[in-house]
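Run log, item B.
One chain of 365 residues. Sequence copied directly from the ordering sheet:
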Amino acid sequence: MTVKEQVLLALESAKGDPVSGEKLAGEIGCTRAAVWKAIRALQAEGHEIDGVNRLGYTLRRSADVLSESYIRQRLEAAGVPLEVAVMDTVDSTNNELKRRASAGERRDLCVICREQTGGRGRQGRSFFSPKDTGVYFSLLLHPDVAPQDAARLTTLAATAEALALDDVLARIADEDARLTGAPAETPAPALIKWINDVCMRGKKITGILTESQIRVEEFALEYVIVGIGINLYEPDGGFPAEIADIAGAVFPAGQRRENLRNRVVSEVLIRFMQYYREFPDSDYLEDYKKKCFVLGREITILGADHRPRAAAGGSPSGSAGPGAMGGPDRAHARALDIDREAHLLVEYPDDTREYLSSGEVSVRV
């Protein structure tokens, strides 16, 4: 850890109280001149640090800058065994981890960056990943599970993300209330649209892409990569026209929040790894179902290439009846439930039911 990182952590731990340069130098094991140089570098990054004679330095406000040391410290405090690497710009955090895995990386590892130049989404789509508006990170994992179970890490990630955002935003609302003296406002909740779109205020704010490498001769997982991108701030000028109707952000443009990236990434990783400890156990799906806003709603199933499997219980209340794979009445349905494999149980207008294992849906309004 650099002197600059150690100084920032010490000031953050002091929670607004002054810390003398002498004390910082003694705790870190460096000169007071090195502390002063680190303070100047932190101020240049946007951290609001005051220096007062005979009192020392006070961190008034942290800039929203990714800090590997902050995230690592939060994970260690939570007992999360995960290596972390922060990068400024990369083509894709998923691609970066593929390269590292090919080079022999065998640890569970998370790569985090400020910008992706070639971010990817599901079904070959690109993922808009500009600098300073979001945070983009991927986890390299080595679960001892059957290859078919790996896909459920996508829903696990969505659950961890939605709950983490709720928690961070609630804390920010409480902090704002303490500063202003006004009652804390209730933040908009983060909700999940099956399968893995996390949304706020009706707009998609995140993307999740899970990829795996299989040892063909054994039909066993070599590794899984779970990529997550979160739109924290709306870009200046808005999103590109082709995604403006569906893409949203946690905060509007211009509403920068203190240390938001580090807080969000840390909380998502902690919750993800807590669920992951029990994987492939599906208990996390209870939390997923509570966050999934399509249940009980009328939906439109997008695309005709889904391959549903029959629901248990027999026709007509159970298995799909004649014509279940197509027909005009198959575009609309009611979402009823989610099973232990994260399949969506739907009921069509003719009372037949099917489980959908993949695909996309939209909520009818």
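Observations after the first pass:
- The longest helix spans residues 153-180.
- Confidence is low (pLDDT under 50) at residues 304-310, 312-329.
Flagged for discussion on Thursday.
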